[in-house]
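Protein in question quoted in full.
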Amino acid sequence: MDKLLKMAAESADKAEVLMIETQAAPFNIYNGISNDILEGDVREVSLRIVKNGRLGVAKGSFTGKNRDAFLKDAMTSAEHGPEVSFNFPGQSPPKGGEIYDKALAGLSARDMATEGWRLVDLAKKKAPEMMMNVYIERERKQFHLMNTSGADVSYDQTIYTANLLHMFPGSKEGINKELVSCRWFEYPEEKVDELVEEFEQTRVDVEVPTRKMPVLFRTSATWSLLYRVLVGVSGDNWVKELTPLKKKVEHAVFPEFVTLLDDPTVPYAPGSVPYDDEGVPTRKKAIVDHGVLKNFIFDLATGADSGRGSSGNGFKKDMWGKGIEMTPVPRFTNFVMEPGALPYREMIRSLEEGIVVNDVIGFHAGNMLAGEFSMNVGIGSYVKNGKPVGRCMDTMIAGNIYEDFHNIRALGDVVEYNPQAYTPDILFGDMSVSGTGK
């Protein structure tokens, strides 16, 4: 890295080198009868240079022997790259929460296999006919960034993922219960019980009528709604004058009981990194504080173009990614929605009629910047008289988060992680539901 940075500094006006080395070992069990383990080591490098005010980027696998090719590609990219006005940050002290667990770093494939088969045996005792897949992964990431402004920052991170998925017969989909932490944990039996319970609730396919009714979004599905907030408060859309939220700062956009945070201080949470992918220290900030919009998120480029500076949210991964997939864009560290007080089973018992949404299809449909959504219920159940009676089939939900969030009946008492956020369950009052039933 040091050699590559020096070479780039000799040819360009500014330069930055980011290296992410990942050692991953996923363990899989398919339908409770077969398993495999895949060990993988990846070293990725991103070289960014600024030449004559234009940005050039080269990224990919790095061996240490391909420095010349990286530099050549970055210089070529800069010939027609975008004009930029930002400076790379200097050295700063780290922030963020704890993200490294020595015990997890040393977790063996045998340890993961033992845990995986324990979960299969546990589930079979509770529901022998349930087809179940298990996915367990131990990951270690080493982050190192250097630039010509004097920054030389690094951190180590471990991530443990345990996912149980029951499969619907004749299908490749099912309800999953995924837990993620930066330290090792024993998968709790109550989550297995929850999976079995929802398996029983979706055994029968039912047709849902078309009318307004309450909708309960489980934590596994809330990200599909909250992703519209990410789009709305992105510095990129601020600069491009695309988001209507630009005029809403310090105004109420949600009810008073809704608070949304960008929080890299959550202990052992995957997003609790001390620096973003541009070497800017991360920090905790309110996005929505008791319903009032407070902050947007910016990377270096959008921070410079907006005049507001980077907020420590420049990341080079795409929506579902883990490594270096793209040039930086504004993304949350840990997107956290503060909980309420009602357990989800009580939410279900309160419904005379309604649906429970575990997963959605087509989350991107609708005008995201305006908060609109129109999604298929991928996996969910229909509730009558406080009890789930079967799996929702051919059902759609539609609305607008800036309207429907004012119709929230209750927030769950537990915050859980999904791939985009930490949230409670959310129970909405009447929401537009379209089905094929009567």
Summary: The longest strand covers residues 14-30.
